[in-house]
Structure formats: structure tokens, C-alpha cells
Design goal:
The complex is a heterodimer of chains A (300) and B (401). Chain A is mainly alpha-helical and 300 residues long. Chain A has helices at 2-28, 36-53, 58-79, 85-105, 107-110, 129-156, 158-168, 170-175, 180-206, 216-229, 234-257, 263-284; strands at 116-117, 208-209. Chain A contains 12 helices and 2 strands, in the order αααααβααααβααα. Classes of the chains: A mainly alpha (300), B alpha/beta (401). Chain A binds chain B through residues 1-4, 7-8, 11, 104-105, 107, 112-115, 117-118, 129, 206-208, 210-213, 215, 217-218, 248-249, 252, 263-264, 266-268, 270-271, and chain B through 39, 43-44, 51-52, 55, 80-82, 84, 86-88, 91-92, 95-96, 98-100, 111-114, 116-117, 119-121, 124-125, 135, 137, 141-142, 179-181, 184, 208.
Chain lengths: 300, 401
């Protein structure tokens, strides 16, 4: 049981990193990004190829994963500069699909739909699987800690305040003399870098990546995590990620305890419980569990 | 309303009693604790149409084995998790099966990507993985013998298909393939087989699956004067290709995998278009006792090849554990080949197998999916193939070889 809980906490760590990244782009700057899994995949493929084929040390691979995703994020921000709302959502969703299709078809580079297996992990094989899990648990959650502190600082810095201003009204921010596009590019790059970093860690934990693993389902989980936790709030992002993993995994055990339910019904029931809990949460607490708090909020 | 009062002493006594009874129970039944197997079929997602039947086949075998006394007196249970046809969900499901339920073996993974993602967990924790995935790369992983695959890999499938076509007189074949892990490897195999027999592959095009128009591909095929076309794709694209082949007046052999042209294709295409299409697939051994028994258990539902394979997964794991007298993953891995091949008594059901093993006789299990003999890397040998031709809205059996 302990091994299982540890493994799930590791997954929660990946999700928390992604939710933190999304929070910069969506929560602070107000740009909907449904292409999350594309940046996640970029980070994963970058480090997998560099560490496996070119024998780069792992930390460099992680940095490269974050950098590649950041570059893609910056480019993306320039391309979608004039898009907002639904249109932006569709373009970013398309971006993730493009990444997945390229990974499926550029067989010479990515090994196509077979995926890349045997990605090295820190001390994998030298220590017991259990110790490996613990090492990764420490690694991922220290990463979450560092990223959390940095992003929380950024979110209350002048930079974060400008992003919020852009979120609320782009034109007003522009009139106030802020270079809106340049701020958007930086927000997108920063958020994408965190998501790419999460993907890079994920590749080394799982030891195997394939285009199938980067389906839009993962994006949905993270969007849900952030919505449940509280859009715009860094603490909410982490709490939301934990909540989503708890829901995904906890429902296994709940559904199992209901007598007379076949495994097929159990699978369907699980998805219903997850959906229902999130609907209820959004119905009764639309601002999320930990709503965004800004120092600038004035009382009426 | 009645009010139930439980005093402090009563509660204490009750709690103490509960704890003791657990302790006693634990000691008394420690020897006969149930053996747990994990099933990880796709109950939702792209594999959703197949998973429930695969699971049903496993459960059937386990009920039968329990009725026959279980593994040396230990009852068997199966815990199922849904892999959602997604590697990420598959890994989390496998984690739960291995770490929480402590299963002795994992069986029934379907998508190749799920199997590849789950495999390292299985071999690192020393649990065998029985799978129906076809990608060649799976058994090439460093799995230390923990992977058993009952599905012939794509190389064996395409080799068998090519040889059959050559026997039918095909010499000039055109290869149209959807982008997939085995598009290129299929081409290499076909080129080699046809060249060796004095024929040739007249053209090879990899196309994108989601295309809705294949005019230029068909034009190239028509120019190549081929006597056969290999449609190495999936249902949506093969449907369009067949229509365009008909329109272009192609009169050669049309050959494809059965999964790309299931009977549902007759609903979307007129008979004139489908007539003459030849399909092939690795076939369960339809005449074997094991298959007939599985079919009887399924009643009116037809048994698909994957369920026949998971029927064998469960049987192999149970018999191997029974022979070893030990339900650990490593014991099962080491004993699967001892009960699936060799000169032992041929058995076709888990009941007969358990009886023979209890009597100390060597057994050779012959399953519903075939003779289930494994080579050194865990790939299946000696599967039979089924060839069918479409005629007026249904498939007729040509040959079972």
C-alpha cells in the first residue's frame, strides 16, 4: 500500500507542476491554454532523446525540456497574440494535437507510435523499485516547492500585477503603457517551461513515453485541477492537483466497495463519480477551494 | 425511533473482540490465503468494445478453477482495473494492482502503448505480464522473461499473409499502409518474401489515417499494373480506399487485416464494392475443445480472438502456480513453459490441468487461442490464421491454415 501511495503522490507532483504552469498562463494572464499536454510532451521528448541518444546528464535533460517548451510557448504566444477566449482555446488544442501527430509520424526521431522506452531514471536499477519511488517523490515535491515559491513571488511582483491587469482588460493595460504582447510572451514561456519541466521529470519516472500518453485527457485533468483549486491562486493549483489525483484514485476503492457492481460498471461509475464531484464543486464553490487573493483588492 | 446505546465497556470489548478475531483468522487461514490475479483490460476508451469480454473470459476460468479446488486448496480471485486504453491510466491501474492488491500476475493489457508502459513495473516488481498487444518491440524489452504474449507479433502476421498470397499466385503487390508502428516493418517483410519468390512489391505508400480522399494513391496503384493490393490500414481509411478502388476499376486481389474490415463494413459499402475483398487474422483454434468450452460459456455472444487469449492467460497463470506450488510472480514465470509446451499430457481446460498436476503428471495446455507455445523472448508460436472472402454482404471462409 505504501508503495502505491508514494507512486500516486509522485503523479500528483507532476500534475501540481502542470497546474502551476497553467496558472501563470491562464490564472494570471487570462489566456486559455488547452495545449498543455503538447508542452508536457515536448519536455518529455526533449529530455528522453537527449539523455538516451546523446547520453546527456539528466539535470541537463530536464533543463532542456523546460527550455524547449518555453521556446514553443513564446512562439505560440506570438502566433495567438490577437486571439482570445474560445478561439485561443481551439488553437492551443490544435497545437497539442500537432505535437502528438508529429511524434507519431516522425519515426526517425521519435520512434513513432512505438514510443521511446528505457529512458534512464536517477539510480533506476541500482536501488530497489521502492527506493526509486522515494527518490522521485523527494525530487518531484522539492521541484513543486521551488516552483511554487518562485511563482508565488512572481505573482505578487509588478510582473504578476501587470499580467492580472492584462487579464482584466488588455486595452487598459496598454493605455497604462505596458507592452501587452511582450508580457503575454513572457507569461506563456514561463508557464510552458514549468509544464515542460514536469513532462521531463515524468519521462524519467515512467521510463517510457509514447504519443498515446499525450492525449487531451491529461489537459482536461489539469484544467479541472486548477478550476477546483482556484484559478489564479498558486496554492489552489497544488491543492487542486492533489484533489484530482485523490478523486481519480479514491474512486477505485469507493466503487470497489459497492456490492454487486461488475468491473465494467465500476469503470463507468468511477468516471461518473469524478464528473459529479467536480460539477458539485463548481456549482457550490465556483471560485475554487482556495480562491485567488490579491493585495490590491479594495473593499466597497 | 429506537436509540442504540453502546457503553464504553461494550465498545472496548467489541473492539478487542474484533481485533482478536482478525488475529485468529489471520493465523488460521494464513496457509490458504487466496491467490490474487490482476486484470488490466481496456474497459473504456478505444479498446472499450473488447475489454469487458476479455475480463469475462478471465473470470470464467477463475470460477472454474475455484470449483475444481483452486491452486492447491487456495482459492483464486481476480481484481480488475480499467486501463482506459491510455498508458498513463494503465500505469496507475497497474500500480494499484501490484502495490495494493499484491497480485501474482497481470493479464489482459490490450493497447501496445499501455503494455509497453506497464511492462517495466511488472518486471521490476517480478510479476509476469500476459498481453494481447501486437507491437514487435514489446518482447524485445529487457523483461527478464516476465512478458508472455499470446498475440502473434506483426512481423509473423505479415510474413504469414505474404506467403499465403504468393501461394495464391500473387506476384506484383502494391502496399498501401496507414502510418503505424508496423507500416515500415511490414514493407520490409513483404519486399523480402516477394523478392525471394520471384515477385515484387510494385509500390509502397504510407498515408495519413485521417485523410478523406486517396485519389493520387489510387492513381499510382493503377499505373503500377499490380495483381494484388495490400490495404494495411484501419476501418475508416480502408472503407474509403475500397470505394475508390471500385471507382477506378481495379480488378486485382484486395487483401487486408480482418480488424480493418470487420462485418460492419457491409453496412457502409455496397456489396459490389466489397465483393472479393480477402481478409486474414490470427485465429483462435475454433475446433479446439478449449475454444468450444469458452464459446459455450459465452452463450450467444461470439468469442473474439482477444477473449480467447485472455482465457488462456488465466489458465496458464493458474496451472503454472499449481505446478510450482507457489503463487509468486517468479514461480509463475519459471513454470509457464513447463505447462504450456513439451511432451506432457494434452489438457484443454483449467480443471483437467489442475487434476493432472495434482496427480503428478506433466501437462501441455492447448488453449482456445491456439497451442500456446512460447519462444525464448515470450512470443507465441504456431498460431493458426483464418482467411475469408467477402461475397454479397458476408464473409465466407476460404481457409484456416
Amino acid at each position: 500500500m505504501e508503495a502505491y501511495i508514494i507512486a500516486m503522490l509522485v503523479f500528483a507532483g507532476f500534475y501540481a507542476l502542470m497546474a502551476l504552469g497553467l496558472n501563470v498562463i491562464w490564472g494570471l494572464a487570462g489566456m486559455v491554454n488547452l495545449g498543455l499536454v503538447g508542452f508536457f510532451g515536448l519536455g518529455a521528448y526533449a529530455t528522453a532523446l537527449l539523455t538516451k541518444n546523446l547520453a546527456w546528464p539528466m539535470p541537463l535533460g530536464w533543463a532542456a525540456g523546460a527550455l524547449v517548451a518555453a521556446a514553443a510557448g513564446a512562439l505560440m504566444a506570438v502566433i495567438v497574440a490577437r486571439l482570445r477566449g474560445d478561439y485561443l482555446a481551439i488553437v492551443t488544442l490544435g497545437f497539442a494535437e500537432v505535437i502528438r501527430l508529429v511524434a507519431s509520424n516522425e519515426v526517425w526521431l521519435t520512434n513513432g507510435t512505438d514510443g521511446i522506452s528505457g529512458i534512464p531514471g536517477p539510480w533506476r536499477g541500482e536501488v530497489s523499485p521502492q527506493t526509486f519511488n522515494l527518490i522521485f517523490l523527494a525530487l518531484v515535491w522539492s521541484a513543486v516547492g521551488v516552483v511554487f515559491v518562485l511563482l508565488a513571488r512572481a505573482s505578487h511582483s509588478p510582473f504578476g500585477r501587470v499580467l492580472r491587469a492584462i487579464r482584466e482588460d488588455e486595452d487598459v493595460a496598454a493605455v497604462a503603457g505596458k507592452p501587452v504582447l511582450w508580457f503575454k510572451v513572457r507569461a506563456f514561456a514561463l508557464g510552458a517551461a514549468v509544464v515542460g519541466f514536469s513532462g521531463a521529470l515524468y519521462a524519467h519516472y515512467n521510463a517510457y513515453i509514447a504519443p498515446d500518453g499525450f492525449a487531451p485527457l491529461l489537459t482536461i485533468y489539469i484544467v479541472l485541477a486548477l478550476t477546483a483549486g482556484g484559478v489564479g491562486s498558486m496554492r489552489g493549483a497544488v491543492v487542486g492537483a492533489l484533489l484530482v489525483v485523490l478523486l481519480l484514485e479514491g474512486t477505485r476503492f469507493i466503487a470497489q466497495e459497492i456490492p454487486g457492481v461488475s468491473p465494467v460498471q465500476k469503470a463507468a461509475l468511477r468516471e461518473s463519480i469524478i464528473a459529479l464531484s467536480l460539477i458539485l464543486l463548481l456549482r457550490f464553490r465556483p471560485q475554487g477551494l482556495i480562491p485567488e487573493r490579491t493585495r490590491t483588492r479594495s473593499s466597497p | 425511533m429506537t436509540n442504540l446505546h453502546i457503553g464504553r465497556r461494550a465498545a472496548l470489548l467489541g473492539a478487542a473482540g474484533a481485533v482478536t478475531s482478525f488475529a485468529i483468522g489471520g493465523r488460521a487461514f494464513g496457509q490458504g490465503a487466496p491467490v490474487t490475479f490482476g486484470a488490466l483490460p481496456p474497459l473504456t476508451g478505444a479498446g472499450g468494445p473488447y475489454g469487458p469480454a476479455m475480463l469475462r473470459a478471465i473470470q470464467g476460468v477463475i470460477e472454474e478453477a475455484n470449483a475444481a479446488g483452486g491452486i492447491r486448496g487456495r482459492q483464486i480471485r481476480v481484481v480488475a482495473e480499467d486501463d482506459q486504453t491510455n498508458p498513463d491510466a494503465g500505469v496507475r491501474g497497474a500500480r494499484k494492482l501490484i502495490d495494493v492488491d499484491n497480485v501474482s500476475a497481470v493479464m489482459g493489457t490490450w493497447a501496445s502503448s499501455v503494455t509497453t508502459a506497464v511492462a517495466p513495473l511488472c518486471w521490476e516488481n517480478r510479476r509476469p505480464l500476459f498481453t494481447v498487444s501486437g507491437a514487435d518491440s514489446i518482447t524485445l524489452l529487457p523483461h527478464q522473461g516476465y512478458i508472455f504474449r499470446t498475440q502473434p507479433n506483426s512481423k509473423l502476421q505479415i510474413t504469414t499473409g505474404s506467403d499465403w498470397l504468393l501461394k495464391q499466385g500473387a506476384r506484383r503487390i502494391f502496399h498501401l499502409a496507414a502510418q503505424s508502428p508496423f507500416a515500415q516493418s511490414s514493407q520490409d517483410v513483404m519486399a523480402e518474401r516477394f523478392r525471394a519468390a520471384g515477385g515484387q512489391v510494385t509500390g509502397f505508400i504510407i498515408y495519413e489515417r485521417d485523410k478523406t480522399n486517396f485519389r493520387s494513391e489510387i492513381d499510382q496503384l493503377m499505373r503500377s499494373r499490380s495483381d494484388t493490393v495490400m490495404l494495411n490500414g484501419y476501418l475508416p481509411d480502408v472503407t474509403i480506399l475500397l470505394r475508390e478502388l471500385y471507382r477506378a476499376g481495379f480488378d486485382g486481389r484486395k487483401f487486408t487485416f480482418a480488424y480493418a474490415a470487420p462485418p460492419a463494413i457491409f453496412q457502409s459499402l455496397p456489396n459490389d464494392v466489397t465483393n472479393g475483398l480477402i481478409t486474414f487474422q490470427p485465429s483462435p483454434d475454433l475446433n479446439s475443445d478449449a475454444f468450444k468450452r469458452l464459446q459455450a460459456r459465452f452463450g450467444n455472444t461470439p468469442v473474439d480472438p482477444y477473449s480467447a487469449q485472455t482465457n488462456d492467460h488465466a489458465t496458464l497463470a493458474i496451472l503454472a502456480a499449481a505446478l510450482a506450488g507457489d503463487a509468486s510472480g517468479t514461480a509463475i514465470r519459471d513454470n509457464v513453459r513447463k505447462i504450456s509446451q513439451g511432451d506432457g499430457e494434452k489438457v484443454t481446460s483449467v480443471t483437467d490441468g489442475l487434476k493432472a498436476i495434482a496427480a503428478g503428471r506433466p501437462v501441455n495446455y492447448e488453449g482456445a487461442s491456439g497451442p500456446v507455445d512460447f519462444d525464448d523472448i515470450g512470443d507465441i508460436r504456431g498460431t493458426r490464421f483464418r482467411y475469408e472472402r467477402a461475397a454479397n454482404g458476408r464473409f465466407e471462409l476460404i481457409e484456416l491454415a
